[in-house]
Amino acid sequence: MNQQQKIWTASIIGASGYSGAELVKLLMRHPGIKIEALYAHTQAGKHFSELYPAIPCDKVFQTYEGQTGSDIYFLALPHGQALGFVPGLLATGKRVIDLSGDHRLKNIDEHKRFYKGDKSPDAVLQYGMPELFRDEIAGATAISNPGCYATSIILGLAPLFRGNAGGLEVESVNVTAISGISGAGRSAKTELSFSEMSGNMRAYKVGKHQHTPEIMQALGTSATEPSFRFVMTPMIAPYVRGIYSVLNVRLSSPTAMESIRELYSGFYGDAPFVRLRDGVTEVSHVVNTNFCDVSLAFESDGSLVIITAIDNLVKGAAGQAVQNMNLMLGLDETTALL
């Protein structure tokens, strides 16, 4: 007789937003998880299906008032709000996965500078990027889920910085990263309305996006004292979901593309959700999946172009959160994601 699989209970605080809804969809098909409660203060009393009819969930949104009955809590809240929830949940021994930026940065000054607030985290949680920190995540009880832009950029660059590159040195990185409108969240904003965005595209927060210090931290340096020149230009385009990042890298010396491919293949050899593409990837290749596609597009005289694509709501948010949860619970990290 097969041993009955353990079932963990999970609740989502901030379940009415796009990332929260994506979490509901993924957890509903997870064989080891039972959704216990969905919390969303402004939507309290409404059925989940009123907001998202395509997802057959019969739960009613509740107001969170300190309930700690679940095994796992996902925080899908706007930046700044998770700071008030994490200490209490950790004190009661709960597993916590925070999808906001509140607990990602070790440097408190950088946190205050880039997130524009005086509040700072009581604790820095384990950074939840499985491709870089799988063992640490498996032993953690609380995770800070990476940002969507950060995921697409870090996974495109990590082998150059963390892959024993054999003397390969990066002098500069210039990033242009394009996000679909869902990356801005579900709240109504005039500048994101159909009449403003249809047929339009624009850059914003050029050189000062809040994911910048997170990216630098994961690559072993900092935004305050960087070891290489880094410029990020985020852009928003009139499609719903997906992030497309073009990484222009300047190496200290020319390097054969075959050597770079070998480096990337080795680094991501056991990463089930990173795919090295022979051709140039597209957003449509990854939408509604937990994959990050990486294309090594061009190398000439030390200039390297890397292109990545992810779904910002899945690999950039809810999917990566479930991937982290799987590792924390000792499950196959692909569970409910393939």
Automatic annotation (TrEMBL):
Keyword terms of this UniProt record: Amino-acid biosynthesis, Arginine biosynthesis, Cytoplasm, NADP, Oxidoreductase
Entry EC no(s): 1.2.1.38
Top-level enzyme category: oxidoreductase
Positions of the Semialdehyde dehydrogenase NAD-binding domain: 9-140
Keyword Chaperone in annotation: no
UniProt keyword Oxidoreductase, yes or no: yes
GO process terms (BP): L-arginine biosynthetic process
Superkingdom of source: Bacteria
One CC-aspect GO term: cytoplasm
Pathway stated in the Swiss-Prot or TrEMBL entry: Amino-acid biosynthesis; L-arginine biosynthesis; N(2)-acetyl-L-ornithine from L-glutamate: step 3/4
Main location: cytoplasm
Reaction catalysed by this enzyme: N-acetyl-L-glutamate 5-semialdehyde + phosphate + NADP(+) = N-acetyl-L-glutamyl 5-phosphate + NADPH + H(+)
Gene3D superfamilies: Dihydrodipicolinate Reductase, domain 2, NAD(P)-binding Rossmann-like Domain
Catalytic residues in the record: C148
Recorded coiled-coil stretches: none
Function text: Catalyzes the NADPH-dependent reduction of N-acetyl-5-glutamyl phosphate to yield N-acetyl-L-glutamate 5-semialdehyde.
Protein family: Belongs to the NAGSA dehydrogenase family. Type 1 subfamily.
Protein name: N-acetyl-gamma-glutamyl-phosphate reductase
